[in-house]
Design goal:
- There is one protein chain.
- The chain is α/β, with parallel strands linked by helices.
- It is built from 23 helices and 9 strands.
- α1 crosses α6, α3 packs antiparallel against α4 and α17 crosses α19.
- The longest helix has 18 residues.
- The protein is globular.
Length: 444
């Protein structure tokens, strides 16, 4: 097979033009990506496969096709990157899709309901205080959903019945026992509102293995939500701030830890987001320091003291735990082994994988808001696969996946077959630590 030829004008195609062109030219149109692509699996259209989308982006970049014509198929892409590990040629799809979306953003026409939904998302999700207020209003709106514009209903359907109490993170947490390192934690945005216990559990586990945890107070959203929908300017603003906060001269960390797969992969793309800027080198340096929390904990796994989880009935000899691969952890960051290794270390745990593990759950940042029908189909399929494991607990490493799973598991649960408990990997691990949290964990 012959690599795809192109005539993309590099000088007018943005700072990532060469990377986009290389991704196009690496594709040999073999079709191995089709069976890996969730949206092709659902929609069964060549134009909604990675190969088809690469051709569409090539045509737009070359000026042979208007961006509006390609937009419906490219908007339908999850950006899950399942195509990358399936590609025998090594096409770096991530270096094409997001830069392309940013480049053509102003060339595409968006209907006003979608513009409203995207504006509300951009103005709320990346800001925890705003999002908490919006979520509270949305919970009221759920009772009047018939009066809410259809384009906004998916936002309401994903909200929980109640919000947990806000938890203020402190700037510094002391290691428990002998200190072996120092890390910085990205706190996340929506996660702080929907599941603040994830950060609490993450800090608990990191301290347990001897790490001091710093939570910089001036950090912002990582920018990945904006980057993945083509809002490059907003993504760059967030990225620039975090480069200043996490990579400043006064900082000295062994790693910048993330506990949301999408945030981690977004920060690892800071070199791409800030390419051609005055801080490109600092952005690349910071990107190289970013690690998922499961990777960091696995590096110190010999320091874990674990006990049987007190999360199920005592009469059960073995605790079955299903693990769901978050796409931006498994595909974007290449982290598959470490979470499984940690879970297998817990006494009396039988780890089971979920069928069709390569298929995205349909969350994918704001995809379940932008493309609710496809997202619902994928969410139902994933929830059905989780239920089929018979595991009372399902674990994953991304807040979007956890929210999507919980929503669809609840919708199909019955009295005879209740929904499994949905937990973040660090929540589960924290519950299995053979110790009590320190009553005085803060250093001022």
């Amino acid at each position: 097979m012959i690599a795809m030829q192109h005539d993309i004008p590099l000088e007018s195609s943005g700072p990532n033009a060469d990377a986009m062109a290389e991704a196009v030219s690496t594709c040999i149109r073999c079709g191995f990506c089709l069976s890996a692509c969730p949206t092709y699996d659902v929609l069964q259209r060549e134009s909604d496969s990675p190969r088809g989308r690469i051709i569409l982006m090539k045509e737009v970049l070359e000026g042979a096709m208007p961006a509006d014509k390609a937009a419906p198929h490219l908007d339908a892409c999850l950006g899950c990157l399942a195509c990358e590990p399936a590609c025998p040629s090594g096409v770096s799809y991530r270096h094409l899709l997001s830069p392309y979306r940013s480049l053509v953003r102003e060339r595409t026409t968006v209907a006003w309901p979608q513009r409203l939904q995207r504006w509300l998302t951009a103005q709320t999700l990346p800001y925890p205080n705003r999002f908490r207020l919006a979520a509270r209003m949305g919970m009221i709106g759920k009772k009047l959903s018939a009066l809410v514009p259809p384009v906004l209903r998916p936002m309401l359907e994903l909200l929980p019945e109640t919000l947990p109490a806000a938890q203020k993170l402190l700037p510094r947490y002391e290691a428990l026992g002998d200190q072996v390192g120092r890390v910085a934690l990205l706190a996340g945005c929506a996660q702080q509102v929907l599941a603040p216990q994830i950060n609490e559990a993450t800090i608990h586990v990191l301290r347990h293995i001897g790490l001091e945890v710093v939570v910089p107070t001036e950090q912002s959203c990582c920018g990945s939500l904006a980057w993945h929908v083509g809002d490059g300017d907003r993504a760059a603003k967030f990225a620039r701030n975090n480069v200043r906060v996490f990579a400043g001269d006064q900082q000295s960390f062994d790693a910048v830890v993330t506990n949301a797969a999408g945030c981690g992969s977004g920060m690892q793309e800071y070199g791409m987001i800030l390419r051609g800027t005055d801080i490109e080198s600092q952005a690349k340096e910071l990107a190289g320091m970013v690690k998922d929390v499961s990777v960091v904990v696995c590096e110190h796994a010999d320091r874990l003291r674990l006990k049987r989880p007190a999360l199920v009935h005592e009469g059960e000899a073995i605790v079955r735990v299903a693990y769901h691969d978050a796409c931006h952890l498994a595909n974007a960051q290449g982290v598959r082994v470490q979470p499984r290794e940690l879970l297998r270390r817990v006494p009396d745990v039988e780890l089971v994988d979920v069928a069709e593990a390569h298929l995205c759950c349909g969350s994918a940042g704001t995809y379940n808001l932008d493309q609710p029908e496809t997202a619902d189909e994928l969410g139902r399929r994933k929830a059905k696969a989780v239920m089929a494991t018979g595991a009372p607990i399902v674990v994953s490493g991304n807040i979007g996946c956890l929210t999507q799973l919980q929503t669809h598991l609840n919708s199909m649960a019955t009295e005879a077959h209740p929904a499994p408990r949905v937990m973040h990997t660090m929540e589960f691990l924290s519950a299995c630590l053979n110790e009590s949290p320190s009553p005085n964990p803060i250093l001022n």
